C-alpha cells in the first residue's frame, strides 16, 4: 500500500455485505490492510435486566484478534455504542436488543474508524431503522501540522496527534470525536473539515456497494 | 457532499432506485396543503393522501428514508391523482418484526395453561389462545404439541405489546390456518424473497408449479414449509427457492429448464 | 438470545431424509463440504470456511520463562472462542460445556500429538522460551465447529513466522522483520479432525454434519489424523455404542479426507508464499471475489484538503468565544479549595427525574391523579377510598402491587405506576380478583411476615 504522497487520501476500501449466514446483518470491511467483520442481531429478545421500556438496548462487543477484551476495547465499545445510538431510531423497537459484534481481523491503522464503518454497513445490511448513516474517519497531524487521512499503523505511530471522528451523513455533523496526542484548536477544526470531506467519499462508497447488492432484484 | 445532494431529490425520480438511511425525498408541492397530508401507518390510502410505508418517515415537507433498499411507489386506486399513493422501501432483511394482519409460520415452544407461546422469529414470542382455532371450545381443545408448526395471523402486533396470534379469521373459520401437517420441511429465506414470492403472479411459483404437485406455505416471517410426494422432490423445491435469493430471471429459467429435462 | 427452536416436522424430515441417504444440501453421506482457506496480511492469520461455518485463526508469540518441570520446552496455548456473532445462543465470555469440550479436544489434537517441535522454541534453557498462542474465533456457526477449528489452527501455525533471536552469553537479542527474516515454526505433522454424526443408535452415519444435522444426531465421533494415517486423538460422545467395524470404517474415511484437506492446505500455503515472494497483492482484500454481487471495492480515493485551513479559521472566528465560566476559587480551609460556586448545576436532569418519581408516588395519596392516563391508577384510588381513609391500608395496597409485579425488587422504592408499564392489564385484574385477602395479611408472599 505504501505511504501517501501528500498524506491526503483514503486507502483502498473493499467490503462484502452479508458474508455471514447466521446474523441478521453482517459486513466485512477492509480499509487498506485494516479489516473488521461486523455481525449483528436485532431487534431481538432482550434480557430482563437490560430491558428498556422506551427504546432498544444497543450493545456493542469489540473482539480483539489476540487475547480477551480489556479496558481498551471496553472504551472503544462505548464510543461506538454511543455513535450507533445516535444514528439508530431505537424508539421504534422498544424492549428489544440490538447486538453489534465487531471482530478485528487485522489492524493496520485507523482501526476505530474501520470499526465504525463496518458497524454502519452492518446496520444497513440488517435493515435497522436509522436517522442517518455515519462513518469513521481518522486524521493524523505530523510535527509540521500537516494533516493525513486514514493513516496506516506506521503513520499513526509517527504522528504527533491522532484524531478520530464519527460523521453523520446528515449535514456532516460530528457525532463522536476522540483524540490522542496534542493539537491546537485550529488544528482540530482543520481535522474536522478534512474528515467531513473524506466522509463524502465513504458515503458514496456505501451507496455504491448497496446499489451493487440490489442490482439484481 | 454528493450523497446529501443526491438525497434531496423529488420522490418520483428515485422510484426503483437504491435509497439509504438519511436520504430525504421531496414531495411535490400540494395546493391544498394541510398538516395532515402524510398518512402514516398501514391504513388504506385516502384519495390524494400519501401512505408512507416501511422504511420511511415523514420529516418536514418530505420523507426521510430509514432503511436501505429500493424505493417503491404505488398509485392510489380510484380518483387519487398524481400526488396520492404509497411509497415504501423494499429491503432485504432477515429479522422479522411482527405486523398486524401478517400471516406467519410459528413454532410452539410452551404450552402454558390456556395459551401457547409461539416462536415467530421476532423479538418476543407470540401468544396464541387455545380457543383461537376453528371449532375449539373449552371442552374440545385443539391437539397442539410443543414443537408443532402453526400457520396463523397476528391480531395484535405493535412495538409496545406482546404479539398475539389467532388461527381463525373474523368469521371463526380456519381459512387455511392452524397446525401444519407433521411432515414436510421448514426452512428460512430472507423477508424480501418472501414478499417477492407472495406477489401476485409470481413467476417463480408458476414455474415451480409446472414441475410436479406439492404443498407449500409461506410465512411473512421468512419461513417456508414445503411438502412434495417424495423427500427428493421436497428437497428440490426447497433448494430452488433458497437459490432464488440471488438469481436473475434468466439464470432461473435456465435452472428450471435443467430440472424439467430430468 | 435463544436459539430458534427446532420444530418436530424438521426433526422428522431430517431423520427420514437420512434414512433415504439424502441430505439437505444435496451431499452424499460421506461428502465433506467445500473448504476455503484465505490468509491475512499478517503472518499466522487465516480464515477457514467449511461450507458456511467460518473460523478465524491467529497465531502470536511471546518470550516467557518456561514451566518448571519442562525447562527446555516452549509453551503452546490454544484458545477457541465462540463469538456471539456466530450464533444468537452464544453469550460473550461464557465458558459453556460445548466450549470447554471443543477447547480440550483441540489441545488433545494439536498439543498432545506433538505436531509442533516445542524444544525448538527454547531460547535459553530454564530462562526464556517462546510461548505460541493460537487464538481461534468462530465467526459463523453452521455445524462441525471442531473440524473447521482444527484446520484453522494448523493452517495458522504453518503460516506463522516468529521473530529471529540470537543469544550471546546471557543476552537475548530480538530482531525485527526488517533486520532478519522471521523464522517459521518447525512442524512435524498436521493433525486434522474429521467428525462423524450417528443417527438411530449408529445405524446411519454422516460425515461433516451441518448445524441442523447436529441438532438431531444421537452421537458424534471425532477422529484426528495426519496424512501418514496416524490417529492423533479419537473421541466418541453422545453415549452411542459403536461396533469395531464402524470405528474402523470411520478411520478409513478419515484417512481419505485428511489426505485431501492436507493437499489443499499445502496448495494454499504454497500459493500465498509465492505471491508474497513475487511482491504481489495478498491479504483478505484479494480473497473477496470481484464478481460477487455483495462485494464492492473502491480504489484509493483522494480527498482535497487544500483549503481546510481557511475553513477552520472561518469557523473559529465565527464561533463565540467560550464564556468565562470559572468562578474564583474559594479557599475553605487550609488544604481544601472549592471551584465553581454559583455556576448552574448540570445535574438538573437527574434531579428532575427523581422528583417526577416522587410526584408519581405522591399522587396515590392525593385523589387527584392529574395527567395519568393509566386506568389502573384510577382504579387503585377507587379501591383505596372504598376501604376507607385508613392510611395503613393505602400503603399496604401499594406494597401488594409491587410484590406481585416485580417480585425481585424491594417494595420500598418502586411505585405502582412504574411496575405496571411492563405488565398486561389482564393479569392485574386477576390479581385483584383472586387474592386480596392474602395481600392484606402477607404483604411479602415470599418471606414470612414479621413477628408482631
Describe the structure.
The complex is a heterotrimer of chains A (217), B (262) and C (452). Chain A has 217 residues and is of the alpha+beta class. Chain A is 31% helix and 32% strand. Chain A has helices at residues 71-87, 111-126, 153-158, 185-213, and strands at 9-10, 13-17, 25-31, 34-44, 57-63, 97-106, 134-141, 147-149, 161-168, 174-181. The N and C termini of chain A lie far apart (35 Å). The longest helix of chain A has 29 residues, at 185-213. Chain A has four helices and ten strands. Mean pLDDT of chain A is 92; it is low at 1-7. In chain A, helix 1 links the parallel strand 5 (57-63) and strand 6. In chain A, helix 1 (71-87) packs across helix 2. Chain B is 19% helix and 31% strand. The radius of gyration of chain B is 21 Å and the shape is flat. Mean pLDDT of chain B is 85; it is low at 1-7, 31-37 and 41-47. Chain C is α+β, with helices and mostly antiparallel strands. Helix content of chain C is 35%, strand content 22%. In chain C, the strands form five sheets. In chain C, strands 1, 2, 3, 4, 5 and 6 form a six-stranded mixed β-sheet that branches. In chain C, helix 2 crosses helix 3. Chain C is extended. Residues 350-452 of chain C have low confidence and may be disordered. The chains are: A alpha+beta (217), B alpha+beta (262), C alpha+beta (452). Chains in contact: A-B, A-C, B-C. At the A-C interface, strand 1, strand 2, strand 3, strand 4 and strand 6 of A face strand 3, strand 6, strand 15, strand 16 and helix 7 of C.
Amino acid at each position: 500500500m505504501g505511504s501517501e504522497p501528500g498524506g491526503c487520501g483514503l486507502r483502498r476500501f473493499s467490503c462484502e455485505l452479508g458474508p455471514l449466514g447466521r446474523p441478521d446483518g453482517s459486513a466485512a470491511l477492509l480499509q487498506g490492510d485494516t479489516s473488521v467483520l461486523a455481525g449483528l442481531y436485532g431487534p431481538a429478545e432482550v434480557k430482563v435486566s437490560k430491558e428498556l421500556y422506551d427504546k432498544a438496548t444497543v450493545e456493542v462487543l469489540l473482539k480483539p484478534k489476540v487475547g480477551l477484551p480489556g479496558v481498551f476495547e471496553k472504551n472503544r465499545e462505548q464510543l461506538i455504542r454511543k455513535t450507533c445510538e445516535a444514528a439508530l431510531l431505537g424508539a421504534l423497537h422498544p424492549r428489544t436488543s440490538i447486538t453489534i459484534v465487531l471482530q478485528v481481523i487485522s489492524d493496520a491503522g485507523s482501526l476505530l474508524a474501520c470499526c465504525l464503518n463496518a458497524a454502519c454497513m452492518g446496520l444497513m445490511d440488517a435493515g435497522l431503522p436509522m436517522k442517518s448513516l455515519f462513518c469513521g474517519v481518522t486524521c493524523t497531524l505530523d510535527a509540521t501540522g500537516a494533516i493525513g487521512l486514514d493513516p496506516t499503523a506506521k503513520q499513526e505511530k509517527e504522528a504527533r496527534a491522532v484524531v478520530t471522528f464519527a460523521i453523520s451523513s446528515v449535514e456532516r455533523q460530528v457525532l463522536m470525536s476522540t483524540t490522542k496526542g496534542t493539537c491546537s484548536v485550529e488544528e482540530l477544526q482543520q481535522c474536522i473539515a478534512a474528515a467531513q470531506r473524506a466522509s463524502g467519499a465513504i458515503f458514496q462508497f456505501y451507496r455504491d456497494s448497496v446499489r451493487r447488492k440490489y442490482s439484481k432484484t | 457532499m454528493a450523497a446529501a445532494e443526491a438525497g434531496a431529490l423529488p420522490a418520483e425520480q428515485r422510484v426503483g432506485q437504491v435509497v439509504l438511511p438519511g436520504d430525504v425525498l421531496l414531495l411535490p408541492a400540494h395546493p391544498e396543503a394541510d398538516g395532515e397530508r402524510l398518512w402514516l401507518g398501514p391504513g388504506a390510502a385516502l384519495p390524494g393522501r400519501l401512505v408512507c410505508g416501511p422504511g420511511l418517515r415523514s420529516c418536514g415537507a418530505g420523507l426521510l428514508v430509514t432503511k436501505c433498499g429500493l424505493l417503491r411507489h404505488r398509485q392510489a386506486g380510484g380518483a387519487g391523482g398524481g400526488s396520492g399513493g404509497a411509497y415504501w422501501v423494499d429491503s432485504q432483511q432477515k429479522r422479522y418484526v411482527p405486523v398486524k394482519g401478517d400471516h406467519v409460520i410459528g413454532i410452539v415452544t410452551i404450552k402454558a395453561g390456556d395459551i401457547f407461546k409461539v416462536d415467530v422469529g421476532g423479538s418476543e414470542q407470540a401468544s396464541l389462545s387455545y380457543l383461537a382455532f376453528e371449532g375449539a371450545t373449552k371442552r374440545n381443545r385443539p391437539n397442539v404439541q410443543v414443537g408443532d408448526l402453526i400457520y396463523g395471523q397476528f391480531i395484535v402486533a405493535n412495538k409496545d405489546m406482546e404479539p398475539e396470534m389467532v388461527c381463525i379469521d373474523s368469521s371463526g373459520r380456519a381459512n387455511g390456518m392452524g397446525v401444519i401437517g407433521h411432515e414436510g420441511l421448514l426452512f428460512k429465506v430472507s423477508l424480501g424473497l418472501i414478499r417477492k414470492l407472495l406477489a401476485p403472479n409470481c413467476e417463480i411459483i408458476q414455474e415451480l408449479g409446472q414441475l410436479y404437485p406439492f404443498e407449500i406455505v409461506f410465512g411473512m416471517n421468512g419461513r417456508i414449509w414445503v411438502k412434495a410426494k417424495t423427500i427428493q422432490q421436497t428437497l428440490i423445491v426447497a433448494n430452488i427457492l433458497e437459490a432464488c435469493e440471488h438469481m436473475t430471471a434468466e439464470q432461473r429459467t435456465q435452472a428450471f429448464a435443467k430440472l424439467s429435462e430430468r | 438470545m435463544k436459539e430458534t427452536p427446532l420444530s418436530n416436522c424438521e426433526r422428522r424430515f431430517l431423520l427420514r431424509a437420512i434414512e433415504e441417504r439424502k441430505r439437505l444440501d444435496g451431499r452424499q453421506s460421506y461428502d465433506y463440504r467445500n473448504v476455503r482457506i484465505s490468509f491475512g496480511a499478517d503472518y499466522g492469520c487465516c480464515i477457514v470456511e467449511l461450507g458456511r461455518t467460518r473460523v478465524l485463526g491467529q497465531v502470536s508469540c511471546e518470550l516467557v520463562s518456561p514451566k518448571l518441570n519442562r525447562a527446555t520446552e516452549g509453551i503452546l496455548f490454544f484458545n477457541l472462542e465462540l463469538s456471539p456473532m456466530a450464533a444468537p445462543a452464544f453469550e460473550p465470555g461464557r465458558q459453556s460445556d460445548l466450549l470447554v469440550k471443543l477447547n480440550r479436544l483441540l489441545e488433545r489434537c494439536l498439543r498432545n500429538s506433538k505436531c509442533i517441535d516445542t524444544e525448538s522454541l527454547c531460547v535459553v534453557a530454564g530462562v526464556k522460551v517462546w510461548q505460541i498462542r493460537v487464538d481461534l474465533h468462530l465467526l459463523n456457526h453452521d455445524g462441525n465447529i471442531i473440524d473447521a477449528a482444527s484446520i484453522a489452527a494448523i493452517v495458522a501455525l504453518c503460516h506463522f513466522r516468529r521473530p529471529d533471536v540470537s543469544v550471546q552469553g546471557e543476552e537475548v537479542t530480538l530482531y525485527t522483520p526488517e533486520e532478519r527474516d522471521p523464522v517459521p515454526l518447525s512442524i512435524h505433522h498436521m493433525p486434522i479432525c474429521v467428525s462423524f454424526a450417528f443417527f438411530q443408535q449408529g445405524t446411519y452415519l454422516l460425515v461433516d454434519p451441518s448445524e441442523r444435522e447436529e441438532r438431531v444426531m444421537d452421537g458424534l465421533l471425532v477422529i484426528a489424523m495426519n496424512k501418514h494415517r496416524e490417529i492423533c486423538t479419537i473421541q466418541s460422545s453422545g453415549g452411542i455404542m459403536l461396533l469395531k467395524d464402524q470405528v474402523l470404517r470411520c478411520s478409513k474415511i478419515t484417512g481419505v479426507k485428511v489426505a485431501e484437506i492436507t493437499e489443499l492446505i499445502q496448495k494454499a500455503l504454497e500459493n500465498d508464499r509465492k505471491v508474497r515472494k513475487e511482491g504481489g497483492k495478498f491479504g483478505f482484500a484479494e480473497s473477496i471475489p470481484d464478481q460477487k454481487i455483495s462485494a464492492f471495492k473502491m480504489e484509493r480515493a483522494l480527498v482535497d484538503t487544500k483549503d481546510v485551513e481557511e475553513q477552520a479559521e472561518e469557523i473559529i472566528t465565527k464561533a463565540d468565544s467560550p464564556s468565562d465560566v470559572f468562578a474564583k476559587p474559594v479557599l475553605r480551609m487550609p488544604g481544601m479549595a472549592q471551584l465553581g460556586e454559583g455556576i448552574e448545576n448540570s445535574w438538573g436532569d437527574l434531579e428532575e427525574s427523581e422528583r417526577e418519581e416522587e410526584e408519581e408516588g405522591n399522587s396515590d395519596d392525593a385523589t387527584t391523579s392529574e395527567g395519568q392516563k393509566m386506568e389502573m391508577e384510577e382504579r387503585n384510588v377507587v379501591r383505596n377510598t372504598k376501604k376507607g381513609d385508613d392510611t395503613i391500608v393505602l400503603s399496604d395496597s401499594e406494597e401488594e402491587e409491587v410484590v406481585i409485579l416485580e417480585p425481585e425488587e424491594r417494595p420500598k422504592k418502586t411505585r405502582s405506576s412504574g411496575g405496571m408499564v411492563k405488565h398486561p392489564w389482564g393479569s392485574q385484574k386477576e390479581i385483584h380478583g383472586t387474592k386480596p385477602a392474602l395481600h392484606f395479611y402477607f404483604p411479602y408472599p415470599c418471606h414470612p411476615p414479621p413477628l408482631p
